[in-house]
Amino acid sequence: MPTAAALLTALLFTSIARADVPESVLEAMKERDVVVHRTNGEAAAGRLVGFTEADVTVLGADGQVVLIDRAEIQELTGAVTEANDSAETNGRVKRESDLVLEFAGNYDDAYQTVATTILEMKGKVNTRKADKNRLVGSFRYGLNMFGLKVSAEFEELPDERVQITFNGYFVDSIDAAGVSKKKAKEVADACAAALR
After folding, report:
1. Are residues 31 and 125 part of one domain?
2. Which of 55, 71, 148, 182 pairs as cysteine with 139 (C-beta 3.0–4.6 A)?
């Protein structure tokens, strides 16, 4: 039987461990320009051309192929071009910021797509507290069973547009490492790809 110190050490390292980039996010970002930030502080920019359970493959602008171990990925972000630095537009989705999307389309489509994306990312959608303007997804983080939450606030705009604002938070702990914001950004990235 493990000692209390061993259990505390395991709990500490489990709670601060880097969460792997979900398959749904990688699939949504495939064949798109990305920036892969590594745990050693280096970054690789280019087109995400493939991925496996163990690594991701990025094709740089110079034509060089970079193979990155998924365990080394700290963050994966979509690249924003210099010509459009204030807002990224992709099809029917305009990216106002990392956590705010503007969707040109039906409100019900936006709501259903966000709910489906959360489920595809192995989250749970809280249907008891769901309402027309807010959706909350719960995710497991370490030993914290579904204590990591990502909310999506929906606001109807004129001309059949919907603004979706994502927010990440923990229910029963403090997020000193920024894990909840990273998770909210992953959900926003996956939703932006799904809403195209």
Report:
1. no
2. 148
pLDDT tier at 12, thresholds 50, 70, 90: very low
Are the beta carbons of 139 and 183 closer than 8 angstroms?
yes
Our count of domains for the chain comes to 2
Do residue 46 and residue 16 come from a single domain? Answer: yes
Global confidence as pTM: 0.57
Q: Which residues contact 59 (CB under 8 A, 6 or more apart)?
A: 46, 47, 49, 65, 66
Higher-pLDDT residue of 40 and 179 is 179
Name residue, tokens 């790809």: 193
**CA–CA gap between residue 36 and residue 89 (Å, rounded):** 21
Q: Are 150 and 187 in contact (CB under 8 A)?
A: yes
pLDDT of 6 higher than 70: no
Range(s) of the domain holding residue 44: 1-78
For residues 100 and 76, give the distance between their C-alpha atoms in angstroms, rounded to a whole number: 17
Residue predicted with more confidence, 24 or 74:
74
For residue 23, the domain's CATH number is 2.30.30.100
CA of 176: how far to CAs of 8, 17, 136, 170, 180, in Å?
Answer: 18, 13, 21, 10, 9
Q: Which residues contact 126 (CB under 8 A, 6 or more apart)?
A: 136, 137, 138
Q: How many residues does the chain have?
A: 196
